[in-house]
Amino acid sequence: MRPSKTAVFLINLVQDVNILRPLIFMASRDFGFETRLLISSKFLGRDMFGIWQSEVDRICEETGATHEVYDDEFTAFQTLTNRSGLIFAGSDSNLSAHSTSHNVLRSAPPGFIRIVLQHGFECVGFRHSGDHVRAHGTTVSFGADIVCSWYGGDSLTAMSPSQRTKLHVTGPTAVLQMPTLPMTRLSDAPGLVCENLHSVRLNISGDFKSQFVKAFEEFCALQAQDECQVTLRPHPGGQYVLKNKLPLPENATINNAPMYRVDLRQFSYGISAPSSVLIDMLLADIPTAVWRDGNGVMDSASYDGLTEISSPAEWNAFSKEAVNHPDQFIDLQRKFLQRQQMPLDPRDVYERFARLFQAAERIQTSLRPTEPERDRVLFIANGMVPTLQLSFLKPLAPLFDNGSLVNEILTEVRIREEMQVSPDNIALRGWLEGYLTDYAPSIIVFCRYSGPASEIILSWAHNNDVPVIYHIDDDLLNIPADIGERKSAYHNHPDRVGAVSNLMTKADLVYASTERLNQRFSGRFPGTNIVAGRIYCSGSVLREPEQREITKVGYMASADHAHNLDMILPAIVQFLDRNPDVVFELFGSIPVPTELERFGERISTAPPIANYDRFLQEFSSYGWDIGICPLTPIDFNLAKANTKWVEYTAVGTAVIASRDTVYDGCCEDGCGILAETQEEWLAALELLARNPDERIKQISRAQEKLNGDYTVARLREQVLHIFDQAKEIAKRRVAA
């Protein structure tokens, strides 16, 4: 008899097979659902060795499930029509990598309860690493009705408030398919090294792939001296080692089987860069170490408490300790798992998933709200640059969270990745047009973009009547050498200058960060629709001023602002000589000038933080009494925005800034001190240092102005008005 309910499983990434497999067995064997596997055509292309297609065939043989291939959500919809039940996705979010499953969930018939599973310990939309944020941003939403997570509460650091109502804590499906039979490990059992070299974590903050490969090779050489074997496991989706045909040391072998067919207990220890496979190793109770790059740049905070190693010598020392004294590591790891508060008992996890099948059996149909989305915004940027976060993601976050706006981010990094796969322009155009058609943006915003393929995107937008905005916050057509040879060479490359010029002339609306920038571009591009916003950076008071003796002066800047600091160094040096109890701190990538080195520990540094929300929270804890905003009087700087004044004011820091710049307006009415000569800079520093009451009054006035003129709500209103202007201009273009 035909079952009354259907369980559909969307398989798009090769990793989805591993995540969904236990539930496929539950649906078919335990609950008698008609079980169908919908496999995206992209999955077939990703499975370069045919491993996972064979696994799908085997799963169908063992469960009686059927499978079919779909090209897009329209063909998938035809399969789902006249059915009801559950539809599971192993990966779903509004990011481009998950768009195939995401679009199917969004367009699924109302008779289905749509479910997405957390597919990794750190997973977009659930828990981001710093590198995830740099690559994908912080605003992620799901197309599913129910979001199954590995854990709950405070651990879901990246889940939007609007998505938390969908939450169902289940634990990982991996515990439902772990080997349980007794096993005795061989005395000469090899160690296991797992690579995930395709991950953004090993690419976005620096190229750590070569570090890992070199460390692995040298580690194998050390192991060979003791006649020890090493097993290397490629990431199922990335397959970096095999794709790139990297030579394998003689004492190393490859294990490329699906994780549920590997008994990790057979290995004497495990090593991996930050990745979910570390959790598999912990569950198998083998000594486990987390690899980090030599400089500790890679974000591994989610794995704090586990053993960390970096150099080949540390790998080797860990391997010997793991073999001879495994209990010290096992105890550490069990405590780590306890702190995560993940459901890990297979019976408990099974029952949590069983409730979903039981609910589907009771529910006749799922009545989902089908309110139309207000706008689907596509942001295009060179990367997760601060401008994108400041100008759009931060002010629009509440609208993304409540679903009244949908957004996706396409970066130059992603486009260049596709260019490697599609080297000719025809193939690249096909991919880009397919991407745009699938996402169907209602407005496109190029944010500081100077990368490739802008002409293809502009052409698609014009052909589909989609308004285009170009947002610019620097004179990217005239980058002076003063800000650094490397940055100047980067922006002044003919391809980048050409891309910016093309976007400036062909976008429906150019959105400039300041009025001076607006005036400058209006002169260069007569006839172009250019507007300037009243606000560039918004803020709110995070920390009120404190009545105390001054102890810290700071400057927040990247390395390309070194020339600005050099301009006032004599005043800084003289001030520090006069005030021996004061510390001077540099926040960002700006190097310490040689003139300040003689002050030793009184000069401190803090590294840059890419995620803007995290940066502000961290910055508010630094306790700066005075923040400086020097700008050399060059044309490039005259078009700068007053971002530092907003950020300093938000964290309760008094401001001294260069006169005759963008800071003139915000420092009016006693909300900051303006200076030009060395004498004026020194006098301003001394005034604030020796008059705590005046410093408090200045900050209070500035924070009052911040709360009135620079609110997030005002910037959000400004951005939405810019969107409306672009739509009106596009309508006139279409009509003409």
Automatic annotation (TrEMBL):
Molecular-function GO terms, alphabetical: glycosyltransferase activity
Spore protein YkvP/CgeB glycosyl transferase-like domain location: 572-719
Keyword Hydrolase found: no
Keywords: Glycosyltransferase, Transferase
Source organism, top-level taxon: Bacteria
EC number: 2.4.-.-
InterPro entries associated with the record: YkvP/CgeB_Glyco_trans-like (IPR055259)
Protein name, entry field: Glycosyltransferase
Species annotation: Sphingobium phenoxybenzoativorans
